[in-house]
Amino acid sequence: MRRFLLPGFFVVFCFFLSSCSKSGVPALEKDKDSVLLKLGPVYLTKAEMEARILELGPEYVPYLRTEQGKKTILEAIAKQKLLVRHAMAQGLDDQAAFKAELARLRKEQDRALRLYRESLLTDSLLTQLRQRELKVSDEETARYFREHPKLYSVRQILLGDEKKAEEVYSMLVRPGYAASAAEFGRVAAQNSLEAQSASAGGRIPPFLDGELEESFTRTAASMAGGQISRPMATKVGYHLIYFEGSSQAAFNDEIKQRVKKILERRRLDGLIEEWKKRYVMEVRDETLRQYLQF
Questions:
Q1: What does CATH list as the number for 150-248?
Q2: Distance (Å, rounded) from C-alpha 204 to C-alpha 239?
Q3: 201 Cβ partners below 8 Å, 6+ apart?
Q4: What parts of the chain have a pLDDT lower than 50?
Q5: 247 φ/ψ angles, rounded to the nearest 5 degrees
Q6: Where are the alpha helices (DSSP H) in 148-288?
Q7: Cα separation, 156 vs 268, whole angstroms
Q8: How far, in Å, CA of 110 to CA of 100, rounded?
Q9: Which of 57, 119, 166, 232 is deepest in the core (most CB within 10 A)?
Q10: Where are the domains of the chain?
């Protein structure tokens, strides 16, 4: 049965190799000890072959580990390497279009590597900070919960400017009309800029004091059930809030972790304020300055 499947697989695999050659995955040029095939300046390393097997898809891996599978993959790779070698012999790697595409790809790879480096540094720093400056004790967690034990349930409509927010608010509270939760949800679905809550009729998951922006929580905590707030500004825009109610949270493991995250974030915000004073941020696009509090 397998011999009928292999020709189609071979075509797919050859196409895959061609795609890989255009994807810019760099050859392991310094890994000379693991070279398996060599055609002048063109070669295949053991690590590259392993990567190509894995990238092809998990459904092919068991077959490619067999003797017949190894033969199939090596034949396909060898043909692709011959194409590369002949292209170089024809001087195609010296053509302007080829060099321009290679330069573009290197620029993309440099950007991707820079972003990965920044992400890795951020994760490393946060891991370190959680062991020291951000570490929250069980006692601190329990004390915060005793002071802030409520979960608030609300619906929201997020709008981009105050004028639009006032228009939607006026529509919801017009004389002789009392907007229900369902009606508020319908308006949220049509108008809110926050896609996730809009798709749920404006409803957001119940939140603890400190999980959302302070002004949002303060407004919600001051409302009665079924009440709609006037437009209120936060860092992300203008909100209308429909207050559904509040309840006493259970001090279980989930709530404990949420409280710890609140306290961690507050401490991190404090550190960031210190670092704003220590490090100079140069804003080269003046149109962005209004959005940055540095």
A1: 3.10.50.40
A2: 13
A3: 155, 181, 182, 184, 185, 186, 188, 189
A4: 1-16, 21, 23-29, 32
A5: -150, 160
A6: 162-172, 181-191, 195-198, 214-221, 253-278
A7: 27
A8: 15
A9: 232
A10: 2-94, 150-248
